[in-house]
Amino acid sequence: MENRVVVTGLGVCAPNGTGIPEFTSSLKQGSCGIRFHSELEKLKFGCQIAGKPNINNINLNNYFTNVQLRGLNASGMFYGVIAGKDAWENAGLSPLGSESPDWDSGVIFGTGILGVDKFREAIYQVDEGNVRRLGSTSVVQTMASGISAYLGGMLGCGNQVTTNSSACTTGTEAILMGYERIKSKKASRMLVGSCSDSGPYVWGGFDAMRILPRSFNDNPTKASRPLSETASGFVPGSGAGALVLESLESAKRRGAAIYGEIVGGAINSGGQRGGGTMTAPNNDAVVRCIQAAIKDAGVNADEIDVVNGHLTATTKDPMEIQNWCNALGRSGMDFPYINSFKGMFGHCLAAAGSIECVGTLLQFKENQVFGNVNCEDVHPEISKIIDTSRIPQATINFAPRIIAKASFGFGDVNACVIFKAFGQD
Predict the structure, then answer these.
(1) Which tens digits make up the pLDDT trace of 154-173?
(2) Please, what's the b/e burial string for 298-334 (b: 16 or more CB within 10 A of its CB; e: otherwise)?
């Protein structure tokens, strides 16, 4: 028998809230965390707004020792450790104090690029012949697996500790990787999630591609417009989301609170064929991924109550809705409720899937479907295929039973996870 896998802990460090209480309140109210950044204006970015977590009032000594903080200059590391340690505590778990590691607990925490500011600093030091000034932490701050290594050591995890990277699919992929490990009885608990650095060295490439909005610099909270006719590109964001996954047997033994159950999922690639490219999805692959996830979960497409889409506020949003319709065999009034949280914090790149999965699971706890902000003018191509009542503008009271969440990333890669309200057998 395979293990059933449940979610027992959540943590988040997002542009619209750090910590579950603040983040939940923001999602319920539709509050936006996107702000103007003068640094981007000085650097002559076309898009001078972004979603960046505010950690100025966070006591970092609650997460790092003074030794660890010395020379630490990696925003994604800060975000990931805050979210990860909060999720562990939220699950009722404590860092191991003994010399022996916890062989049943592991970490899979993804990132796209980590420590880019530290890497820039290192390049200048090396070029100026100041190698000795790099400090002893430059390597762990700039290696992709630095985040999982930090968290694994802080918590004393002795099972698999690793980092994945698959562009904007990273967070959802990490969750499915942890799910599979517990399901196959190779671990009892896995801390999973993802993080993304913030700043011009991360966002500059997207600005150069001209896929970020340029006409909202004086009105940042209205800039991210998923599903909208007036969407003009995604707003870059950053942060981290974290989940503690656990076998149902372990969770029951501890008497842990359960946010929901993962009942299935799927990961695939369009191979950059059939219309798929480095930056655009193969639509057939997207449909196949969603359908494979539903099959793996052992549910019917008509049982899905809510979809949390990738929906980045680009010209691809109508096609994503069409892909969901094709995958589910549902349209019009028969389509599930659908939402995108990116209107509230932008597209957090490698952290997007994990942050959005945290928000997705909170809908079970709150017995609500959080609203879509900035899409009062639903794209006409979308309203042709699904009824606009399925796109709630504000939070509605509704107790979802099954939610599908998907992420699609550069490289034509896809991931879809199916969450179920616990106790809804």
Answers:
(1) 999 999 999 999 999 999 99
(2) ebebeebbbbbbbbbbbebbbbbbbbbbbbbebbeee
Co-location of 187 and 280 in the same domain: no
Q: Over range 306-329, report the average pLDDT.
A: 97
For range 41-69, the mean pLDDT: 94
Does residue 424 carry a pLDDT above 70? no
For residue 26, being part of any structural domain is answered with yes
* Alpha-carbon dihedral sign for residues 392, 397, 403, 407: positive
Parallel/antiparallel/unpaired status of strands 239-247 and 5-14: antiparallel
- The domain that holds 289 is classified in CATH as 3.40.47.10
361 lies in some domain: no
Which residues, 6+ apart, have CB-to-CB distance to 239 below 8 Å?
12, 13, 14, 15, 51, 52, 53, 79, 83, 195, 196, 198, 345, 348, 351, 355
Q: Are residues 240 and 300 in the same domain?
A: no
Asked if residue 322 and residue 177 are part of one domain, the reply reads: no
**Domain span at residue 64?**
5-254
CA 206 to chain centre: 18
Residues 190, 44 share a domain: yes
| Domain final residue, candidates 205, 221, 254 | 254
pLDDT of 113 higher than 60: yes
Confidence category of residue 122, pLDDT binned at 50, 70, 90: low
Q: How confident is the model over 348-385, as pLDDT tens digits?
A: 999 999 999 999 999 999 999 999 999 999 999 999 99
Q: Give 44-93 as a 3 state SS string.
A: CCCCCEEECCCCCCCCHHHCCCHHHHCCCCCHHHHHHHHHHHHHHHHCCC
